[in-house]
Amino acid sequence: MLPAQDVAVRPDSVVDGLRRAVLSRELARDTAVTEAYVARTFGVARPTARIAIDKLVADGILVRKPHHAARVRVLDRDDIIDLFVSRAAIEVAAVELLASTATVPAEATTAHCTLRERPSGGSYAEADLAFHRSLVHGTTSTRLPRLHDLLMGEIELGIAQIEAHRLRSSDEIVAEHQAILDAIAAGDVAGASALARQHVLASRDQLVAHYDSTHPTAQKVT
């Protein structure tokens, strides 16, 4: 259940709680998220609720049309394809930079170990996200992390869907992460690049296939 009256009234606490509610699917796709609802659920004033909603709109987790309440973002087929192609471009570039100096960020290793050692049946989305974010933020680039952060909200939605629908197993993800880390540590730029691209686009393909199976009229003829 969503917490009521037990979350600190700081806006960042409300943001975190609201984000978890969306990503865990406690708030279903396309659900309206009003200031009154957030204020009541988290025991905060409406200005604080508004700040939290605005933050998740900026992150791409919620969407809002003029004069309408914010709603939980729904990724359609085109969104999925565009998001994961963009994500792959950024993450592959980051992995290539890391492999060029055989640098494995400590945070990436930590996130990988957390994912590998998670309890059976436990959620893997948070550790998966941390792994990918740490690779990008572990580079010497100042621009790649900024670009990646712009997509993080939508990436979170995508990974949450993959986990919720069991489109990829945690063992599969751990094995692919390990291969990427090994290639980086070995200074294999081409290998790390190919593995990172395959890893991200495999998730894209699974999400697209799932979308097509649940939206048969939305499939495109190619």
TrEMBL record:
Pfam families: FCD, GntR. One of its GO terms (molecular function) is DNA-binding transcription factor activity. Residues 82-202 form the GntR C-terminal domain. Residues 14-72 form the HTH gntR-type domain. This is GntR family transcriptional regulator. Keywords: DNA-binding, Transcription, Transcription regulation.
